[in-house]
């Protein structure tokens, strides 16, 4: 049976912890979208890692980790991440890199800075947008191009010619040379060249033979390029609806779809956030939850749970179960607020607006629930949770009409309450 781990909010829900926890029983773990904009925290045998491109399966010998065709890959970041994991494991993880995955080039990062999207959108400045744009414009460089040096250099020369025409004043762009970029890429790529192949076929074979395949989503539903809070989104499809295309399997059917949902809401970067807490309440949550970006170190904006946005995410991810994370962080609050509707231009609405301008005008309509006092981080049984905590979870499960599959009460894998997770 296959399982997908999908973000239900604006990313950083705890997908890394959940994937790593489930990966020990998997045969294959697949990252299918995004690139080094992702920062997934994994605690493996007591050691903390921030992974950006390599799926969490890499921490287990014998588990194949796949970087699928929907990803954009930065080889320099991959090399560093790979060597960190090799040192930790004392051996090499099994890796497969999709031959059709696009590569992030040095000029993609430069373009992001020249165009200023780091400021206007608050991107991670990892070259994500420009790399996906080159893919759509059919001028991208793919992993398969690394296998033929002269073809690679020819494609780079053609791309640089376009760049020079567009940015004649930019010294950083004018200084680039196709031969130098090719040299650098191939030096980073050396250990990975034998690992480049047809990922779509490998995933299909694993699924057909009944292996446990785990899909590790990056970002979250509200950052989806089409159905998120556009333009304050990332440049890939982040949701279950985008998974079959990202891996190239038309008849994909994933029986377990875990919607990873933080017990409150966070967002990094710009864009509207109706339940955002400004002032002391927001900084309290940020401190209590240690909410700092894994990739950029930026403080995350924090706020209450938003059921309106989560209903939208539920349609996109079609979760069969919710994985609630960081419930422990809410311990000690007397009252917990939950947004059940928005007020927009004097009217109450329960649907998530498509227009980001409308979303910015939405005021949350809150319901207030009781908090709980007792430390829950050592609990392993759902029934042992304080009544108020169970009421909070029931409210969410009923509002989204999705059962709670697991509850995470701390960052390490053992701090998890498995409620109804069914591998089939
Ligand atoms: P991801 O991008 O979805 O993998 O999430 P991040 O790793 O960016 O952010 C989640 C943060 O919360 C990390 O620091 C995790 O170690 C931490 N974390 C995950 N689950 C829990 C939990 O249940 N309780 C607490 N206290 N921390 C958690
Ligand atoms: P994980 O997988 C949180 C956000 C950025 C910015 C917007 C666009 O760790 O949950 P990009 O660099 O992708 O062009 O930036 O998307 N963003 C994330 N926020 N978690 C992530 O990944 C993110 N990846 C991108 O902060 O607002
Ligand atoms: Mg993250």
Folded structure, characterized:
It is a single chain. This protein folds into three domains: 163 residues, Adenylosuccinate Synthetase, subunit A, domain 1 (Adenylosuccinate Synthetase, Chain A, domain 1), CATH 3.40.440; 86 residues, Adenylosuccinate Synthetase, subunit A, domain 2 (Orthogonal Bundle), CATH 1.10.300.10; 158 residues, Adenylosuccinate Synthetase, subunit A, domain 3 (Adenylosuccinate Synthetase, Chain A, domain 3, Alpha-Beta Complex). With 424 residues, the protein is of the alpha/beta class. The chain is 32% helix and 21% strand. Helix 3 crosses helix 5 and helix 6 packs across helix 8. It has a ten-stranded mixed β-sheet, with helices on both faces. Strands 14, 16, 17 and 18 form a four-stranded mixed β-sheet that branches. It binds guanosine-5'-diphosphate (GDP), 6-O-phosphoryl inosine monophosphate (IMO) and magnesium ion. 6-O-phosphoryl inosine monophosphate binds next to helix 5.
């Amino acid at each position: 049976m296959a399982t997908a781990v999908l973000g239900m909010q604006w990313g950083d829900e705890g997908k890394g912890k959940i994937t790593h926890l489930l990966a020990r029983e998997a045969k294959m773990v697949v990252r299918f979208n995004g690139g080094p904009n992702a920062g997934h925290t994994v605690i493996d045998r007591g050691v903390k890692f921030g992974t950006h491109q390599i799926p969490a399966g890499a921490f287990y010998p014998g588990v194949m980790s796949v970087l699928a065709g929907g990803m954009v890959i930065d080889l320099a970041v991959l090399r560093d991440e790979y060597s960190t994991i090799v040192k930790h494991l004392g051996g090499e993880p099994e890796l497969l890199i999709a031959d059709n995955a696009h590569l992030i080039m040095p000029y993609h990062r430069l373009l992001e800075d020249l165009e200023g999207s780091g400021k206007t959108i608050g991107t991670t400045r990892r070259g994500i947008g420009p790399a996906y744009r080159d893919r759509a414009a059919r001028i991208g460089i793919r992993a398969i191009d690394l296998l033929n040096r002269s073809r690679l250099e020819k494609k780079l020369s053609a791309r640089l010619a376009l760049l020079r025409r567009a940015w004649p004043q930019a010294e950083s762009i004018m200084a680039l040379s196709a031969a130098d970029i090719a040299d650098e890429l191939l030096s980073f790529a050396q250990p990975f060249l034998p690992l480049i192949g047809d990922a779509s076929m490998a995933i299909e074979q694993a699924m057909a033979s009944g292996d446990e395949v785990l899909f590790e989503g990056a970002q979250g539903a509200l950052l989806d390029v089409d159905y998120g809070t556009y333009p304050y989104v990332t440049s890939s499809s982040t949701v279950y609806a985008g998974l079959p295309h990202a891996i190239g399997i038309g008849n994909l059917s994933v029986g377990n779809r875990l919607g990873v949902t933080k017990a409150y809401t966070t967002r990094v970067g710009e864009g509207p956030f109706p339940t955002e807490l400004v002032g002391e309440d927001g900084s309290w949550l940020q401190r209590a939850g240690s909410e700092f970006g894994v990739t950029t170190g930026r403080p995350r904006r924090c706020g209450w749970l938003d059921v309106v946005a989560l209903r939208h995410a539920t349609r996109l991810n079609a979760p069969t179960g919710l994985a609630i994370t960081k419930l422990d962080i809410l311990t000690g609050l007397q009252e917990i607020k939950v947004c059940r509707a928005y007020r927009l231009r004097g009217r109450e609405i329960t649907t998530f607006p498509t227009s980001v301008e409308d979303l910015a005008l939405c005021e949350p309509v809150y319901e207030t629930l009781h908090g709980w006092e007792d430390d829950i981080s050592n609990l392993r049984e759902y029934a042992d949770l304080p009544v108020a905590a169970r009421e909070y979870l029931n409210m969410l499960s009923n509002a989204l009409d999705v059962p709670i599959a697991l509850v995470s009460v701390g960052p390490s894998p053992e701090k998890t309450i498995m409620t109804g997770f069914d591998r089939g």
